[in-house]
């Protein structure tokens, strides 16, 4: 019995010890929306620095905020910025670092899938339940040349709390005072009308199966599944097709007025080319890192992510950060320190 | 839940406890005593788990309990932005979808069990019984996907318009046909519950001693009368156990229901309307619930689901006991 245990102990320590000594393990948790690009980055980064390993749990933005606030992970990730109150409750100063951009698109089920154009007020009123038919005067006015059927619009929204919903209702709150006052914004809300589908696939499935349905899904999901998507009129008055380029343009349009902490809503931004329903997704970490080795590994990764890493984004259908925003992020990364000493090596 | 129902079915089927003499003898042997201790610990763990679960949920729900109190049980607003929470639509949805499921599944499941145990020719029984158990093992997300892509379009294009035309005067069958909604949830749940009811009921009926059947036949009963009076009555509480097992699954089912019920927190009389269940709202919103009160309200929904499940089970058991007298006289 004793020799058994001894052998087992030898085996366990023998297999773990060399790995544990050489590697730095960084733990993170949070948003599910950027999970594909994050896992791509963490994998690709092992070739940049083989000593660093990342362990990321995509448990949702709420969980990410909770875990970084209780310091159980080294970084968090969220699709909606933390509120002032949440920041105040955290045990240290938390930074928001944008990583990539995502966008929401309008998808629908109409015979022949005509290319439709939506104005902000029409989208808001459909989701408020004030426009109920496809041949409503305001819809036909925005879509000359398309015959819209005399059919009820079946609204489909996400039933699960999600960053996708946050972007969507953040946009509706900006373009409609009534939405702002009646419903407001959050990762899930009290929807005035519609059916709830679980996940992007739930919403898309519901739209695909219901004639006359209209819903919103993530740009990447719509592109991968070749769903019909609508053009949306932006703040400059132009109808814009949702693409990776027009999503990046949304951040470029907002770069001039970017707050230092990046807690900014990018919906309905200025700029001729900007698609209006877009948002950053953020990493959350402490300005003062509690562990020197981990802190150094994290800042090096952040630098790589915001420069070389960005080229992985488009392949996975995320919009990369525009140049001016990367410049602003550089300044934030340089502020991250361990006991007052900046962690980033001089570049 | 599952084990208690199966146990109920087994005892009802006439498996007797070991005689007292054997139990006394167990004290003399060290191995037997250790075994007893071990089993006692296993039994105690189940009890501890249930108590632990309840305590943990009550603690988690405290903030919501303090803010909303009894209003939580009587309001039907669910607004995460303004942080107004009420549980009515979820409790209603859970109970209605489960009731609907049982209405469909009990005749079907018990009927199938009677066929398999009493009527089916010998070569049919093993393959069908095997298939029933196979169906019980299909993951619920598969039923959900089938619900979205097959059942919902079917309901929307054929069943709901037909029901609306013929029975549309009843408030149960009014409103636009979305396909998804309470009816779809009830049907998917019924399909998921049938194999449980069939499999357990079949075992119960097979455990009915042949002397029961022979006695009834000797008195001149027809086959149907024999089944009804001798077999079904003898196995009644076992069959109720099977139904309870099914009900437990229906009340707690999450994934499949979430995918077809429409997820709308509203109390609607119509079966065509979308609804919401307690398990669904937890699954949908728990991961992204950022504020403490919101999270606490969701935990309180969990607590409520726990209470409702226990209450429904207790009620059903009471029902069995209240009609149990007749069963006992038959058995003796």
Summarize the structure.
The complex is a heterodimer of chains A (347) and B (332). By secondary structure, chain A is an alpha/beta fold. Chain A is built from 13 helices and 13 strands.
* Rg over CA atoms of chain B: 23 Å
How much helical structure, as a percent, in the residues of chain A? 40-55%
Sheet of most strands of chain A: 8 strands, mixed
Beta fraction of the residues of chain A?
15-25%
Shape of chain B: globular
Could you explain how this protein is built, in words?
The complex is a heterodimer of chains A (347) and B (332). In chain A, 40% of the residues lie in helices and 19% in strands. Chain A has 347 residues and is an alpha/beta fold. In chain A, helix 12 packs antiparallel against helix 13. Chain B is an all-alpha fold. Chain B is 75% helix and 1% strand. Chain B has helices at residues 2-12, 20-25, 30-68, 71-74, 88-119, 125-136, 140-167, 182-206, 210-218, 223-234, 236-252, 255-260, 278-285, 292-322, 324-331; strands spanning 78-79, 84-85. Chain B has a two-stranded antiparallel sheet with strand order 1-2. In chain B, a hairpin with a 4-residue loop joins strand 1 and strand 2 (84-85). The model of chain B is unreliable at 1-16 and 326-332 (pLDDT under 50). At the A-B interface, helix 3, strand 7 and helix 9 of A face strand 1, helix 7 and helix 13 of B.
